Amino acid sequence: MTNFAVLFSASGPKTHDSGHAMALSIISYVGCAISLVGLALTLMTYALFRTLRKTNQQPILMSLCVALMLLLIVFIAGAARTENLIGCRIVAVLLHYFALATVMWMGVEGYNMYLSFVKVMATYQSKFMLKASAVAWGVPAIIVIITVSAVTSYYGNEDVCVLHGVPFQAAQFAPILLIILVNFVIFILAIRALGRSGALVSAEKKSTSYHRARTSIAILLLLGLTWVFGALAVSRAQLVFDYLFSIFNSLQGFLIFYFHCIRHQEVRNQWKSLLLGKGLRFRQTETDYRTGYPNRIPGEIIMKLVRRRCRCRWRSNRGN
């Protein structure tokens, strides 16, 4: 058995004493199992209810779930299987790839929020999901291929099947940390944009779309912070942050399920309707059809302006 912290510990994989090693392993495997259930339920929910995936945000979420599920499955199935060197290296390569892909999809979600809340001219980007998929799945593949070609021997050892040494620092730790830092900057800009747009969106603060936007910011900040625990796992503090990283990172799938399903009113309504035999509910929300976040000028405000203009014209015609 091994612990989840080996995927992103700043000082690389480290062997703790037997008591802590066993505790970290149990936490990691139990957390991963819970996460897999949460991710499977999230994917099933958004695959089943078509009305929940009418924008880019939901396919991004589903892709993030797939990447994270594959990371957890490979970790549980093979991270501790060190008896066969070739098999161990294959597992290490897959863990490297899916760890990068998971964080890349977090970056795509951050960019999606940037398009909605920060960019002044939120222009249409054709084939957004195709381009996002090419980047989120393709860039990690390029990094892994280069690393495998250059330093195959650094994949896996007698202790655990992960990338280690200087290649780990350069090809896994550094890219993940960079994406997380960029995401934090984007989240700060998005939150500031939300604050400045308060006057425009006050009529729709309780709408599903705005709840979804806040949920995305909260969950991605939380997921990003869990990876930061790994970056802080150095020197004497490594054991403490290894525990924090193992607990929170192995529970990422459950956190995604909690925020995007359990706390999502529209998801609850869909499941309630289905379980009560009423079929699938279809309801439009006031969101940008590309990003999945609130339009800059909500439809309710636009309708008020239109009605006001019509009344002015009617009074003008009546006076004439």
Automatic annotation (TrEMBL):
Keyword Metal-binding carried by entry: no
Membrane topology field: Multi-pass membrane protein
Predominant subcellular localization, coarse grouping: membrane
Keyword Ribosomal protein in annotation: no
Cellular compartments annotated: Membrane
Any one Gene Ontology molecular-function term assigned to this protein's record: G protein-coupled receptor activity
UniProt keyword annotations, A-Z: Disulfide bond, Glycoprotein, Membrane, Transmembrane, Transmembrane helix
GO biological process: cell surface receptor signaling pathway
Name the record gives this protein: G-protein coupled receptors family 2 profile 2 domain-containing protein
Family: Belongs to the G-protein coupled receptor 2 family. Adhesion G-protein coupled receptor (ADGR) subfamily.
Domain of life of the native organism: Eukaryota
CDD domains: 7tmB2_Adhesion
Database matches in Pfam families: 7tm_2 (PF00002)
G-protein coupled receptors family 2 profile domain location: 24-264
Taxonomy of the source species: Eukaryota, Metazoa, Cnidaria, Anthozoa, Hexacorallia
A GO CC term attached to the entry: membrane
